[in-house]
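Re: weekly structure request thread

Next one in the queue (160 aa):
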Amino acid sequence: MKKYMTSFLFCTLSLMAECSLNTRSLITKEGEVTDTKTGLIWKRCSVGQEWQKGKGCVGEIKLLRRTEAEEYARSLGNGWRIPNVDELLTLVDERCKTPVINNALFGKVHDTGEGANYLTSSLYLEGDEVLPTLFYTIDFMQGVVDAHTKSYMGAVRLVR
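Done, posted below.
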């Protein structure tokens, strides 16, 4: 029994360590993470939170409608915006179990009980047809892509 428990703990800690390791392509500097592969610069914290050295992301994550998120990003200036679905998918880390984002780099996600859905700027496609009333979201609890209406309120991670 002791042998199995030791193996279980080792495997669990190994998985957690893999997820929390900083990869070579992600460079942190205060409240930002630069992805050297994509050239994107991410806010470390979700909208509603602020980065504090030694504490990480503090504050409450705000759930916003897409138009509110766009207005907020514009108000920050410096090119901050809502990422498209492909950009946001680059933050999904398969080595992480749940959530599937590196919490050591990006802080905790907001799980509503129905997932941790983060907004994107990408309109939903049905085959070759764009459905302008729907847009993609990514659930960082499971790493799945979904679609919601523009009135849906989700969490937001900004990029530039």
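The chain is about 25% helix and 30% strand. Residues 2-20 form the longest helix (19 residues).
Next request, please.
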